[in-house]
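User:
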Amino acid sequence: MRRTNNYPYQPLNQQPSGPGPASHDALEAENERAAEELKQKIGALKSLTIDIGNEVRYQDKLLRGIDDDMDRTSGFLGNTMTRVVRLAKQGGGARQMCYMFLFVLVVFLLLWLTLKFK
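Assistant: Predicted structure:
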C-alpha cells in the first residue's frame, strides 16, 4: 500500500513500457522539462537572495547611522546636564533655574497649542 504525498509529481512507471526508443525519448523530454523548471526556480531563488542581501546591507547602514546619531546626542545631553548641574551649584542658580523652567514650560505650551489648533 503506497501512501500519497502532496507532491506535484507522479512517480514514473518502473516497468519498461516497450523495447522502442520512443519511451526513452519521452523520459528524456520529461527530464529536460524538469531540469528547465528547476533552472527557473534556482534563478528566482538567486535573485531573491541577492535582493535580501542588498536589503540587509541597506538596513545595516541605516542602523549604523542611527547608532552614530545616538552617540552624538548622548554626548550633547551629557554636556548640557553638566552645565545645568554647574549652574545649579553656583550662587543665584535657583533663580536662573526657575527662569529656565518657565521658558521650557512656555515653549512646550506654545508647541502644544500650535499642534492642537493646526
